[in-house]
Design a protein that fits this description.
The complex is a heteropentamer of chains A (577), B (353), C (375), D (326) and E (345). Chain B is 38% helix and 20% strand. Chain B has a seven-stranded mixed beta sheet with strand order 6-7-8-3-9-10-11, with helices on both faces. A four-stranded antiparallel beta sheet of chain B has the order 2-1-4-5, with helices on one face. Chain B starts with a helix and ends with a helix. In chain C, 29% of the residues lie in helices and 21% in strands. The longest helix of chain C is centred in the middle third of the chain and has 18 residues. Chain C is globular. The N and C termini of chain C lie far apart (56 Å). The longest helix of chain E is centred in the C-terminal third of the chain and has 38 residues. Chain E is elongated, with a radius of gyration of 24 Å. Chain E has two domains: 32 residues, no CATH class; 211 residues, MetI-like fold, CATH 1.10.3720. Helix content of chain E is 68%, strand content 0%. The chains are: A alpha+beta (577), B alpha/beta (353), C alpha/beta (375), D mainly alpha (326), E mainly alpha (345). At the C-E interface, helix 2, strand 6, helix 3 and helix 5 of C face helix 12 and helix 13 of E. The structure holds adenosine-5'-triphosphate (2 copies) and magnesium ion (2 copies).
């Protein structure tokens, strides 16, 4: 197998961390939710941190935030009703606590009605108080047409509809005088918010901790323009933003540490610079002189080219943090294509598909781990031993076996249209994967898809691709954010994430069943069962790799910790040594 | 070839006191196709205040000779042998800085095509003033005034304004006048005019020729006047030197050369020239054949392949031996002096009408 | 090189017995538009290159056209060969109006009017062999001479004094004079009746020039071809042409037979031209002033805005008010021989004998000479 | 001359308008829908139509074109993001920024890159070229000629990475290319751009060496240069006053072309050195099907090219009175 | 190398087939079969040692390109084999060859490409092949277009000339690289068939088409100028006086005379197209993996993976391209000199 010995040390630790998480995250009570957050050892205030980011922030409106770098930023500037709190100094244990709310939420009917009370003394950056009216605005505007990028869980739960039908509940958002009825969302006074769902939603505290559900000021809601200059509530506010170039964050004086159990405000200023490719940020931070000594990146990883070198050097490695990302890579077999409806063919693909090209393209075993199932190590229910097609043993594929299967099915020379993302990595791994599949006797037709519209293309119900690769990350550490959106056959429509168009009655039924389980451990088990069934019996999705990442910081950065929930460096606790 | 050069070796200098004295000059160019012997054993003298006319076919080495006097060759590709003495000063070996002092000052030049010979980038006045400043150390203002004065002298109307013009704003005749003004600005002792009127119309040519003659009287310079028009030379020159294939083949005063030419080539030239007063019944009598190649010139007398009088010499002298050009009135031909006289009077002159 | 031209007998009767003129040109005019203007470029004026000239060329005759540079000689030649479209006027060839004939209409006449050019270097296509060049016109006109084209080309080469074996050579292998002969051979290939020769010898050395002039004379005499011979060298024209026209600024100012023009010129300009020709005086010792000296002032005016009335008046020593207002017609004036026409209000005496004093019109020269005389 | 330049400027505007047409057509020929990109994950046909409407993509192409053109002149007020003063290229689909301000944002880097490199390569290239011409045939000349032949055959995408690998990553002599505005920190501006400058100017200088040399030698053979020598002017004077002036014409012609390509965004250079200038912007605009941005960059680059042409023409007039006075 | 022979009549800057040298060559006088200007050029060219050597180098590259499949066969590998999967022992998990110098060995002469581990030697061979073929095609297309439009504009003059000249002006104002990048996807999409891989030939055709559209103007301009100059020459008038049709004049009189500028320009254009094509592939809009291509190799070479771990790789495409371009440019200079010995360098 491919030589991945170098990273094994790392590996073990990553797994440990992940394991800890599987034990489950508790929902904190009022005490846990009371600020200020505990001081970090050695932390001192002051200093400026340079943040090197690849992509500019396209969205600052919480309702539009759904990508990891914006989510990282959101940790510093926006607040929501709940938040994850690191319960260990190394930032590796978590619980969900109340952020603006006094606790992580209370329910009296098994998760159908949730009640949140706002803390005292919480203010917007302009000094005005945050009230229940703002929270109402936050959720109602998510139904407006211009909100198109953020998460949709709570909207769907409130409207009790799948897909995008929720918008019918309040087509214009709150802007034309209509509001959500009290039967759905009730704000009896300035401090209290009540969510009312038709079915139990035990995951609500998790969902509310998503950056996408951070609060929006009702008074300052400028609709589309809010995306450029939002009203902030976190410990930092935006003092300057030049899209594509720089952003400066300075301390928000109206943020009261006593109201915040999860954030610190050590650093005076964050200077964020965009357009730094992974290579650029890595090189700058490795350089470690001047401003680079206090440089870090929220979401840039150590680039594939430097990764081996960095991990081999003890001094450098000290400045890195690594961990799993919540993503699982998988090759989707498009079940709508007539030729793909033959299970033997799908099995042949599963056996033949080499995983090594994928691992290689992203920097080797330090960056990718060959996957057995569809549930990530960061999610409850992960089973490291599950590997039905022997991918962990034979990551380069088993063309002989596949050939045999194809021969049996009489399908040699089958044309296989492989849509790949047109990035350098995509080109690299797709060619090698195609070569591997061809060894098994497929006639692979690679088709490039522009990177920018890749997911739009492959999520069309009528696409022409037989196989294509996607990755999905859990929105919170439960497989309930993985299995239903990806494999629920009733979700198939344009833009849905059921990419392989699997519509298996057993899977559908099992999903419904699992969704009602309130015990997290039992639920995790149920989800895992579905996962195994899909991989082994339906063979609609071939897991490829679990994403790992290594990030590096300048030597003067303190409080560096990898946060598995955020899926990267935790920006809330950084300080300058 | 070396032996040949020796044979044609320089005749004894007639008078060491000549103003300009060229002795056994050889100029050859290295080209891709071989050595071009553009000037091959040329000697002549020039007195102060006199005009030497050089005639000859295209490519006979007239221009090269004169450029060599000023040392205007690219030394990389050119070999110059022999002597050029200007008032006793040797020019072939002179340093570039010495030559610079001479050029435009003691020796000036007028080129054939005034359009290309004047820089398009500077005003006419400036181009005239430049050498004056350089050679006399005059101030900018003084030099400009001098330029205006010179332009007036050569007959440019309204010289003050026209000095500010660029060459392309001048007509052909005016350009040539400007060229002449430029050449004369430092009062040169020697003026070399290389076909100054070939590019001009007859009426303008007449103007320029008159101008040159008048100016010579005023300035008293010696002039070397190059042309291939015998009519022009008859008008201008005191002495004539006829060149053929890089060497002089006949020399004498204008009257001598035109009225009693001694060389078959000169006869040929006269015979082939249409004149306003010649007999119309007789056809022109051209020199047969074409000019020789300088890469590989004919042996012996360079003219022998085109000469109709070879048989009069007898033997193979014409093909083997290069005739010498004696000093003063002379021609380089193996015919005896008597033969030359009688052939001219009996055979040539009648046909000239 | 063969000097004795062995010419075969003329292929056709040399002259039309009728005696009608071969070519008649009436009021021929060519104006080239001058572009300018702002912001959109348009025609703002015209170069009046040729402005209403009348010519007649008879069968077998050599007609000379002289004048200074830019006076419209070439333009006239190119109009007659219909390389240019006339702006106005009429050209008739053998009674047929060809003023605006199209290429197709001209086809039958093309072979009868040919041209010889000035520049021996640019008039031959460097990429074609001599054989190709000379046989080109035959090919175009579909002429298949008896014995084949190649034989005919060899014959023609022989006629112009070139080695017929040079059939396969390229132009760059020939000297200027030889090239001009090739040009002549090409013109002869179609057995033309009229050859327009535009300064055919101007670019050549005297000795070579004489070879070519002789050749042309032979061709004309023996084949009976009419020539429109354009030149600026009066001496050459005299040697070649029976009748001569003098042009000035797009107009013919004097026309007549050789004798009249060279010995009895009437127009001041003709006088000036003749006196400007530098001459070798082969006669025994005489003073340089054997001939009158007329020095014209300045240059030819711009053809874009020529002077009113008589175009020569700006440089003429006889000019009076009338010259500015009234354009002199080209007529036979008293004292002229038959066929000698002059366009002048105040013609000179019909003589070129020495005058009392030189006429110097160049103010600068005048000043200089005065200065000299004072010394 | 002035009229000529004015006419050139008018002509340039016509060309720019035509170019806009072509760019428009090109864009609508692209197999992508920009609205889809903006629509995000939870896109519905309604939302898509809505975006189409707000972007004005539902109007006919000529109509859109007209709106765009008039916006350039008068500015526009019909954007959700706010008013957009003239010259209004609209708002970028991708970043929601005003295209004009984005262009102006990226311009300083491109300008710095072009200006620095130009100064360097002109200085070096013309210097060596003149020296080679002056010492024609000598060893210096031969080595310059050979050296420039090899260097000018190099490509930025080879020399650039090579220089980075050797000078930055292996030996750490220089810093990683990076752009700091000169107004912020001139020293950082300089050190950050030195490698791109060096690489660009090496390749360009080599071309200018060859060109300066050959055009100088050509000029030295001009007759008027010989006349100047015949007047007794010194070799150096003739070289620098007479020959030099004429040899500038071909050099300026090429300089105009080079400058316009540098100013319009040196795509490969910026790509190689990871510098976010106009070139990168251009690539991004294509990647993201960002019509306003694409049009902006295209028009801007074309305007730069045309401007350079006009400047070159003006330079001709400055150098050559024949041009000036006709 | 050429001496500045001072020949009468300076001649225009346009290289019309110059035969301004009246010098008769005595040794040729013996030959009855004349030598065409082309033959003379050939003789002159053969004397130019630099030119001949460059010609051999250029020919070598073309032979290598043509014979790439054969050479690869003899060598026993092809540029598509993913050695990182075939021979994993040679690579680490990120696909970097474990041996020093990019895994150069007796088996892999030029080493292995970091990433998928293609064999660099065969990749370079095929890369040269593909790049040269594309550039050659572009050159042919642009030259043909340039001839047709340039000669038409120059000869016809008037309205057609105006039109063509305006089009040239217009196209020259195009930011060409940007246009390439913007239009490549459009052109490719014109050919796309829904279920098949975008075939390599489509990309190739698109590359050729796009470069062609913006590539012909300079030659057309030169030819227009040359034709304009030629039109003034008297042999054209001679043909007209004989009644030749415009078609005949263009074919027989003009075209043979523009061969020189065409040849000279083409030798300068081809290497330019090679680098332009490489530049596009470098930017990722040209030829993409796994099709071997010179520019795509540069693209690979400039990735961090290669720069940090295997700098050797960069030198193979780099040096070979420099040699090729230098040789081609020298060849161009020699061809020009051979045609036009007047120009002294
Ligand atoms: N630099 C040079 N290199 C090679 N050959 C040269 C050079 N300069 C002149 N020649 C040759 O030297 C010969 C003499 O040239 P020169 O210019 O002196 O002739 P010329 O008598 O002035 O002719 P023309 O009347 O045409 O001006 C010619 O054959 C010419 O080709
Ligand atoms: N194609 C043209 N366009 C514009 N003007 C022209 C054109 N051809 C000739 N001219 C102008 O017409 C006038 C007459 O020209 P033409 O060539 O007929 O004179 P020429 O008498 O033959 O002169 P030369 O003796 O110099 O050959 C000149 O002023 C010339 O500039
Ligand atoms: Mg000469
Ligand atoms: Mg003429």
């Amino acid at each position: 197998s491919s030589g991945g010995s170098k990273g094994s040390d790392n590996d073990k630790q990553d797994k440990e961390n992940a394991q800890r998480q599987q034990a489950g995250i508790s929902f904190g009570d009022a005490k846990d939710s009371t600020g200020p957050a505990a001081e970090l050892p050695g932390a001192k205030p002051g200093g400026t941190i340079t943040v090197l980011q690849r992509d500019s922030f396209a969205h600052l409106d919480p309702g539009q935030i759904y990508v990891s770098d914006e989510m990282a930023l959101s940790q510093l500037i926006h607040r929501g009703l709940t938040a994850y709190k690191a319960t260990s100094d190394d930032g590796k244990k978590h619980e969900v606590v109340g952020d603006l709310a006094t606790d992580s939420g209370t329910t009296t009917d098994g998760g159908k009605t949730w009640k949140y009370t706002l803390k005292d003394g919480i203010k917007w950056a302009d000094g005005s108080p945050i009230t229940a009216k703002d929270v109402r605005q936050t959720f109602e505007r998510l139904f407006a047409p211009f909100i198109s990028n953020g998460p949709t869980y709570i909207q769907q739960w409130l409207a009790n509809t799948p897909g995008t039908e929720y918008r019918k509940l309040l087509p214009d958002g709150p802007y034309k005088g209509k509001h959500l009825p009290d039967s759905v969302l009730e704000t009896p006074d300035d401090k209290t918010i009540l969510f009312k769902f038709k079915s139990a939603k035990p995951d609500l505290p998790y969902a509310l901790a998503m950056a996408g559900y951070s609060v929006v000021s009702a008074a300052k809601d400028t609709k589309v323009k809010y995306d450029k200059s939002p009203m902030t509530s976190g410990p930092y506010k935006i003092s300057e933003f030049k899209s594509g170039k720089t952003m400066t964050l300075v301390k928000n004086t109206n943020w009261d540490p006593k109201t915040d159990a999860v954030r610190h405000q050590y650093v005076d200023q964050f200077n964020i610079e965009f357009n730094k490719q992974f290579e650029d940020s890595t090189k700058a931070i490795l350089d470690d002189s001047g401003a680079n000594a206090t440089a870090i990146s929220f979401s840039n990883q150590v680039d594939a080219g430097n990764l081996t070198k960095v991990l081999a050097d003890a001094a450098l490695k000290n400045r890195t943090v690594s961990g799993y990302q919540p993503y699982v890579g998988q090759m989707n077999i498009n079940l709508s294509q007539p030729e793909m409806q033959d299970k033997t063919v799908r099995e042949a693909i599963a056996y033949a598909l080499p995983i090594t090209p994928f691992v290689r393209a992203f920097g080797g075993t330090d960056a990718m781990e060959v996957a057995g199932g569809l549930i990530s190590p960061t999610v409850s229910g992960y089973d490291p031993k599950f590997d039905p097609f022997g991918k962990k043993a034979k990551p380069a594929g088993d063309p002989a076996k596949a050939k045999e299967l194809l021969k049996k099915a009489g399908k040699t020379g089958l044309k296989l249209t492989f849509g790949y993302i047109n990035t350098p990595e995509g080109q690299q791994y797709s060619t090698a994967m195609a070569a591997g599949l061809e060894k098994a006797g497929f006639d692979v037709q690679r088709q490039e898809i522009p990177a920018e519209t890749y997911y739009d293309q492959v999520s069309k119900v009528k696409n022409n691709y037989d196989i294509f690769h996607t990755a999905w990350g859990a929105d919170w550490p439960s497989a309930s954010t993985v299995i239903p959106p990806l494999y629920d056959g009733r979700q198939i429509q344009d833009g849905s994430s059921n990419y392989s168009h699997i519509n298996d009655p057993k899977v559908n039924a099992d999903i419904d069943k699992a969704n009602t389980i309130t015990d997290p451990i039992k639920a995790a088990e149920a989800w895992n069962k579905i996962n195994e069934y899909i991989v082994k019996d339906v063979v609609s999705n071939i897991p490829t790799a679990y994403y790992k990442q290594t990030q590096i910081a300048g030597s003067k950065i303190g409080g560096l910790a990898y946060d598995d929930v955020i899926g990267g460096v935790d920006p809330r606790r950084l300080f300058v040594k | 070839m070396t032996t040949l050069t020796k044979e044609t070796g320089a005749p004894v200098p007639s008078d060491a006191g000549a103003f300009l004295s060229v002795r056994d000059l050889h100029v050859s160019f290295r080209t891709e196709d071989g050595m071009v012997r553009a000037v091959d054993g040329l000697s002549f003298d020039l007195e102060r205040g006199r005009t030497l006319g050089i005639v000859g076919e295209s490519g006979s080495g007239k221009s090269v000779t004169n450029l060599t006097i000023l040392g205007l060759h690219n030394p990389k590709f050119t070999t110059v042998e022999g002597e050029i003495l200007l008032e006793g000063q040797e020019l072939t070996t002179a340093r570039e800085s010495e030559l610079e002092k001479l050029r435009g000052n003691k020796v000036a030049m007028i080129f054939q095509d005034p359009l290309t010979a004047l820089s398009p980038y500077y005003t006419v006045g400036r181009q005239i003033a430049e050498p004056f400043m350089k050679h006399t150390g005059a101030s900018k203002k003084a030099a400009w005034d001098r330029a205006v004065e010179m332009l007036g002298k050569v007959g440019i109307p309204n010289p003050k304004e026209r000095a500010k013009d660029y060459p392309h704003q001048f007509s052909g005749g005016m350009r040539q006048r400007a060229m002449i003004a430029m050449a004369l600005v430092c009062d040169p002792d020697l003026l070399i005019a290389d076909e100054p009127t070939t590019a001009l119309d007859v009426t303008v040519q007449a103007q320029i020729l008159d101008l040159l003659k008048d100016l010579q009287q005023e300035f008293g310079s010696a002039i070397i006047f190059i042309t291939h028009d015998l009519g022009v030379i008859a008008d201008m020159a005191d002495d004539i030197m006829v060149m053929y294939a890089g060497g002089a083949i006949e020399r004498g005063t204008t009257n001598e050369v035109l009225r009693a030419p001694q060389h078959p080539y000169t006869w040929g030239l006269l015979n082939s020239m249409p004149r306003l007063d010649s007999d119309l019944a007789a056809p022109l009598a051209p020199i047969p054949g074409a000019p020789p190649s300088l890469l590989n010139p004919p042996s012996g007398c360079r003219f022998h392949p085109r000469c109709t009088f070879q048989d009069r010499v007898g033997g193979t002298r014409c093909t083997d031996e290069r005739p010498l050009l004696a000093p003063d009135r002379a021609s380089a031909c193996h015919l005896t002096a008597d033969q030359k006289r009688t052939i001219f009077i009996e055979e040539i002159k009648p046909s000239l009408g | 090189m063969k000097e004795d031209l062995v010419l075969p007998a003329p292929r056709e009767a040399t002259a039309d017995s009728s005696g009608d003129p071969l070519l008649v040109v009436e009021g021929l005019t060519k104006h080239f538009p001058v572009k300018g203007g702002f912001p959109i470029r348009r025609t703002v004026g015209a170069v009046q290159a040729v402005d209403g000239i009348d010519l007649t060329v008879h069968v077998g005759e050599s007609f000379g056209l002289v004048g200074e540079s830019g006076c419209g000689k070439s333009t006239t030649g190119r109009l007659i060969t219909r390389l240019l479209e006339p702006t106005a006027g009429k050209i008739s060839y053998r009674g047929k109006d060809i003023t605006h004939a199209s290429r197709k209409d001209l086809a039958p006449i093309r072979s009868e009017i040919q041209m010889i050019f000035q520049d021996p270097y640019s008039s031959l296509n460097p990429r074609q062999t001599v054989g190709k060049i000379i046989s080109g016109p035959m090919e175009i006109n579909g002429i298949e001479p008896t014995g084949g084209r190649e034989a005919r080309v060899r014959e023609l080469l022989e006629i112009v004094g070139l080695n017929p074996e040079h059939y396969n050579r390229f132009p760059h292998e020939f000297s200027g004079g030889q090239r001009q002969r090739i040009g002549v051979a090409r013109a002869l290939a179609l057995e033309p009746k009229l050859i327009v020769a535009d300064e055919p010898v101007s670019a050549l050395d005297v000795s070579i020039q004489a070879q070519v002039v002789n050749l042309l004379r032979k061709v004309q005499d023996e084949l009976g071809i009419a020539f429109l011979f354009i030149a600026h060298d009066l001496a050459v024209v005299r040697h070649f042409s029976q009748r001569v026209a003098v042009m000035y600024l797009g107009k013919v100012i004097e026309v007549g037979d050789r004798e009249s023009i060279y010995t009895r010129p009437r127009h001041p300009y003709t006088h000036a031209l003749l006196s400007a020709v530098p001459e070798v005086n082969l006669a025994e010792e005489t003073e340089t002033g054997g001939r009158e000296r007329i020095r014209l002032a300045g240059d030819v005016p711009s053809p874009i805005s020529p002077p009113s009335g008589c175009r020569f008046r700006t440089r003429c020593w006889k000019a009076q008010d009338k010259c500015a207002t009234e354009e002199p017609p080209l007529v036979r004036i008293s004292g002229n021989h038959d066929g000698h026409l002059t366009a002048c209000h105040f013609p000179e005496d019909p003589t070129i004998e020495a005058r009392d004093e030189d006429i110097v019109l160049d103010p600068a020269l005048a000043a200089l000479e005065e200065g000299l005389n004072d010394d | 001359m002035l009229r000529f330049l004015l006419r050139r400027i008018l002509g340039s505007f016509v060309i720019l308008v035509l170019l806009t047409v072509v760019a428009f057509l090109l864009f609508f020929g692209m197999p992508r829908d920009p609205a889809l990109l903006m629509c995000g994950k939870t896109c519905t046909p309604d939302a898509l139509a809505n975006i189409h409407h707000t972007l004005g993509l539902d109007k006919s192409i000529p109509e859109q074109f007209w709106i765009f053109l008039s916006g350039l002149v008068t500015g526009r007020n019909d954007f959700e993001q706010g008013p957009c003063p003239a010259p209004c290229f609209g708002y970028s689909y991708h970043t929601n920024e005003q295209v004009w301000s984005t262009l102006m944002d990226r311009l300083p880097l491109t300008l710095s890159l072009a200006a620095g490199a130009t100064v360097a390569f002109l200085f070096v290239g013309l210097g060596t070229g003149l020296l080679a011409a002056w010492k024609r045939g000598s060893f210096v000349d031969k080595s310059f000629t050979a050296g420039s032949m090899v260097l000018s055959s190099m490509q930025i995408y080879f020399l650039g990475p090579l220089a980075l690998a050797i000078l930055v990553y292996q030996t750490h002599i220089f810093e990683e290319p990076d752009y700091t505005p000169i107004t912020d920190n001139p020293a950082a501006w300089f050190t950050g751009l030195i490698i791109p400058w060096a690489v660009l100017s090496t390749i360009f200088a080599a071309q200018y060496t060859r060109m300066a040399r050959s055009s100088m030698i050509e000029q030295l053979q001009e007759e008027h240069v010989r006349t100047a020598r015949a007047k007794g002017m010194s070799g150096r004077y003739v070289f620098f006053r007479y020959a030099w002036r004429g040899s500038l014409i071909p050099i300026i012609t090429i300089l105009g072309i080079d400058l316009s390509s540098l100013l319009g965004g040196a795509i490969i250079t910026e790509y190689t050195f990871g510098l976010p200038g106009l070139g990168r912007l251009a690539v991004e605009s294509v990647q993201f099907s960002d019509l306003p941005l694409l049009l902006g960059v295209m028009l801007f680059s074309a305007a730069v090219i045309l401007l350079c042409n006009i400047v070159v023409d003006a330079c001709y007039a400055f150098i050559d009175p024949r041009v000036r006075l006709s | 190398m050429t001496s500045p022979i001072d020949i009468e009549g300076g001649g225009t800057s346009v290289v019309v087939d110059g035969d301004q040298q009246p010098k008769s060559k005595p040794e040729e006088a013996k030959q009855l079969e004349g030598r065409s200007p082309g033959q003379l050029m050939w003789i002159r060219f053969k004397r130019d040692r630099t030119g001949v050597i460059s010609a051999y180098v250029v020919i070598f590259f073309f032979v290598v390109g043509l014979a790439a499949p054969l050479i690869a066969k003899l060598y026993g590998k092809d540029p598509y084999t993913v050695f990182a999967d075939e021979r994993p022992e040679l690579f680490d998990s990120a696909g970097v060859p474990l041996q020093p110098n990019g895994g150069i060995s007796g088996e892999f002469w030029f080493g292995l490409e970091p990433g998928n581990g293609y064999d660099v030697f065969t990749k370079l061979l095929y890369g040269i092949r593909n790049s040269l073929m594309i550039s050659l095609a572009v050159t042919v297309a642009t030259v043909l277009t340039g001839i047709v439009l340039g000669v038409a504009a120059g000869y016809l003059g008037g309205k057609p000339d105006q039109l063509i000249s305006r089009v040239i002006d217009f196209l020259l104002a195009f930011p060409s690289q940007l246009f390439f990048i913007a239009s490549m996807p459009v052109v490719v999409s014109l050919f796309v068939s829904p279920r098949d891989e975008t075939p390599v030939y489509v990309r190739v055709v698109a590359l050729i088409a796009v470069q062609w559209v913006l590539g012909w103007m300079s030659l057309a301009r030169i030819l227009r100028g040359t034709t304009l100059a030629l039109r003034e020459r008297e042999f054209i008038e001679a043909a007209k006086v004989s009644g030749a049709s415009p078609v005949r004049i263009i074919r027989r009189e003009i075209l043979p005379n523009v061969v020189t500028p065409i040849l000279v320009q083409s030798t300068y254009m081809l290497p330019n197209f090679v680098t332009a094509e490489a530049g596009l592939s470098f930017l990722g809009v040209g030829i993409v993996e796994p099709t071997p291509d010179w520019g795509q190799m540069f693209s690979k070479a400039s990735t961090e993976l290669v720069m940090q771990n295997d700098i050797t790789y960069m030198f193979f495409p780099g040096i070979s391209m420099i040699i090729f371009i230098v040789a081609f440019n020298l060849l161009g200079d020699s061809v020009r000199d051979a045609f036009d010995p007047k120009t002294a360098r």
